Amino acid sequence: MMKTDFDAIVIGAGFGGVYALHKLRNELGLTVRVFEKGGGVGGTWYWNRYPGAMSDVDGHVYKYSFDKELLQDWEWSTRYASQAENLAYLHAVVERHNLIGDIQFDTEIESAAYDERRAAWTVADSRGARFTARYLVTALGPHSSRNFPDIAGLDRFEGTVVHTGAWPDGLSIAGRRVGVIGTGSTGTQFVCAAAQTTAHLTVFQRTPQYVVPSGDRAVAAEEVAAIRAGYDGIWEQIHDSRVGCGFAESDVPAMSVSAEERHRVFQEAWDAGNGFHFMFGTFGDIAVDPDANAAAADFIRAKIREIVRDPETARRLTPTELFAKRPVCNQGYYESFNRDNVRLVSLRETPVVEAVPRGLLTADGAEHDLDVLVFATGFDAIVGGYRRMTIRGRAGLDLAARWKDGARSYLGVSVSGFPNLFLVFGPHSPFSNLLPSIETQVDWITELIAAAEGSGRTSVEATRAAEDAWVSTCEQASAQTLLPRVQSWIFGGNAPGERRTTLFYFPGLGPFRAKLREVAAAGYQGYSFD
Ligand code: NAP
Questions:
Q1: In whole angstroms, what is the distance from residue 128 CA to residue 33 CA?
Q2: Do β-strands 177-181 and 372-375 pair in parallel, antiparallel, or remain unpaired?
């Protein structure tokens, strides 16, 4: 008979879930089952197979730090890791740690309920099968629930409709007429790749983005060797830093130097490439001081004017709002608009009226003929995965109801009223390179479970007071930045019906890790073990 009772159940086999399986099974010796909706491991990297998909954090730090042998053996030849490379890396981890046998694919979990009497979770999949475990780890992914804007008459469109977050294998856009809606990290990456191969690419842009070069390039063998030799120091620096991207963050205020010096620093960062570095490595206050922000924004606007040949296209591509979204970088975004096969449509000036059999009709009466319409319209971030599921804690308390006025957590990991539930990268996690934050949180979850097991207690739960204090810390930190002043997924509100709320701990990874150490040293302050 199939086993249905485990010590721990993990939902999701992306970077978070795979590491949770390794820690809980291989280190704590628990019986663990991972349930994954997709047909393979990878999470984001399983689903996002669109042309141009890659991580825009340097590839050598978009890795787990725990598997030191693999870090020494892993080969790479370009600065950033493509979707295929990230997936291959995760496959290698799964194989090296013998994890595949405890992952059940093609299984969507629809509900989870906590039984207080038995101190155990029961989860049910979409086929009605039920499984039980004392601990439930939700590694649902911050970008797993896709946003599809409503377009009137879309069902009449005779071409192919696809979301970048569910790109089917075998869909080729080479030589075809393609339209893409959305110009975030995904849309701009897609544009750079698609511009090179499509017969015609129409970019439907709502809000212009600040995009800086990624500086992707070939990496020489000597550089790889130097990184391998220095990995311990690299991780140490990352773990103490804010955004965890492997570069030294600046503490210099932008306005403390001359205009010439500012320009030199921005130019140097532009030439070297990387979005997080441009925002956090040039000066220390771009995300907090309006003048510093304006200086960075002006620099990028001048670049757009310089690069884009058609002044009208350049005008439409130029952002007017603050430079305060999750930074975006890639190779040749603005240059793409100098190509004869690429056309920009500003949805602010000429919104889509409806879909027609041959494409999209915009308010200026233009019919944009398309073979493929690509939605690069983002995700119901962080909380979307939770909204698709019913999760009930103590006394039947519904997580969605609990979060109706904004998601809440303690340390991005625990929710009061939901004992033995552990979120990987839940709301109020550090704003940083995802990998080191995921690893930090899974280590923390493992430590909490070990503490519960070691003390013979059956449940561990965040207190309401600790949760309230953490949410308030996150809100206060966020209010000190410029980031809430623009509309983007990092504050939610980009998905229908979702409230705008603080979803991150902006002080970042280093301060987050320091907080965890403080909480542990105080006997897991803010947690109750029953
Ligand atoms: P996103 O940043 O939320 O961007 C969505 C885009 O779709 C925006 O341009 C948005 O316009 C547009 N959009 C949404 N609804 C629309 C509508 N109804 N009509 C027209 N346009 C609409 O989503 P994303 O680009 O998928 O990126 C999400 C996050 O995933 C990133 O910030 C990043 O953290 C991660 N990501 C990372 C990488 C990487 O390189 N590592 C690559 C891709 C994604 P508005 O700006 O006007 O809302």
A1: 17
A2: parallel
Q: How far is the CA of 163 from the centre of ligand 1 (A)?
A: 11
CA of 181 to the centre of ligand 1 (A): 9
Percent share of the chain, pLDDT over 70: 99
**Can you tell me the distance from the alpha carbon of 302 to that of 304, in angstroms, rounded to the nearest whole number?**
5
Span from the CA of 209 to the centroid of ligand 1 (angstroms) = 10
pTM over 0.85: yes
If one residue of 377, 382, 489 were mutated to test the ligand 1 pocket, choosing by the most ligand atoms within 8 A of its CB, it would be 377
| Structure tokens belonging to residue 361 | 């009709």
Average the pLDDT over 344-373 and give the result. 98
Ligand 1 closest atom vs CA 326? 32
Residue closest by Cα to atom 23 of ligand 1: 378
pLDDT average, residue stretch 5-23: 98
CB of 351 shorter than 6 A to ligand 1: no
Closest by CA to 450, choosing from 121, 72, 30, 155, is: 30
CA 134 to chain centre: 28
Distance 480 CA to ligand 1 centre (A): 24
Task: Give the pLDDT of residue 2.
Answer: 84
Residue 220's CB: how many other CB atoms inside 10 A?
10
Q: What are residue 390's DSSP bridge partners? A: 111
The rounded distance, in Å, linking the Cα atoms of 53 and 82 is 6
pLDDT per residue as tens digits for the range 42-82 = 999 999 999 999 999 999 999 999 999 999 999 999 999 99
